[in-house]
């Protein structure tokens, strides 16, 4: 059998998500630049040390409760999570959320981000069930404060859907991915990396739910759009091609 081994399907999907996230971040009003290899990132523990240094400077110059200090503390939590120090990351995110609610208020956009980040910390620590109510609260807040079409709102819905997938509830993830895909097609267009991501997420969720034919159809659609808008040699396109091969042969 050719294509991705069955045990590698989820890993390939994770790689696809990373590539499309990177492509979305690089997108400009003129369109996507040609793909270029990513430079070797700094070691994760070095990122922790650097973010801690920046936090100490902000605390000294701005004070512990300044919004910029809270964001710097968030970066320390994110660096810890990236370095695999998930327990410390969760503790930091819990404190940051409490500080954000106290200093900025529970409905401030930054506080909603802190709540989303705490959910992500629990997910990274292997507890997606604990992440789900936090994502739900963050999503509800972003819909009310930022609007249903804000990129951060759509990202939060993505996160909630993924947490349901990780708790073996793909049928709960499907309508979330369907709505996000529809919203991104309408607001960003069919070729935007985030739209490709939503269609890939929906395809993968149907695969996990046992809907192989629909999953293959969605991955085929994703592949066509990825080839057209990113190029046939883009890493994201190659990942979609591998996933399509896998679901067709499953």
Helices and strands in order, then pairings?
Elements: H1 9-26, H2 44-62, H3 67-82, H4 86-103, H5 109-124, H6 128-145, H7 151-166, H8 170-188, H9 193-208, H10 212-229, H11 235-249
Helix pairs in contact: 1-9, 1-11, 2-3, 3-4, 3-5, 4-5, 5-6, 6-7, 7-8, 8-9, 9-10, 10-11
Written overview of the protein:
- The chain is mainly alpha-helical and 250 residues long.
- 76% of the residues lie in helices and 0% in strands.
- The chain is built from eleven helices and no strands.
- The protein has helices at 9-26, 44-62, 67-82, 86-103, 109-124, 128-145, 151-166, 170-188, 193-208, 212-229, 235-249.
- It is globular and about 55 Å long.
- The N and C termini lie close together (10 Å).
- Mean pLDDT is 91; it is low at 1-6 and 28-40.
Descriptors for this entry?
globular; disordered N terminus; 250 residues; mainly alpha
Put the structure in a nutshell.
This protein is mainly α and 250 residues long. It has eleven helices and no strands. 76% of the residues lie in helices and 0% in strands.
Q: In percent terms, what proportion of residues is strand?
A: under 5%
The biggest beta sheet is recorded as:
none
Could you report the average pLDDT, rounded to the nearest whole number?
91
Number of helices: 11
- Rg, alpha carbons: 19 Å
Q: Assign the structural class, choosing from mainly alpha, mainly beta, alpha/beta, alpha+beta, or little secondary structure.
A: mainly alpha
Low-confidence stretches: 1-6, 28-40
What's the end-to-end separation, in Å?
10 Å
Shape: globular
Order of helices and strands: HHHHHHHHHHH
Per DSSP E runs of 2 or more residues, the count of β-strands stands at 0
The amount of helix comes to over 70%
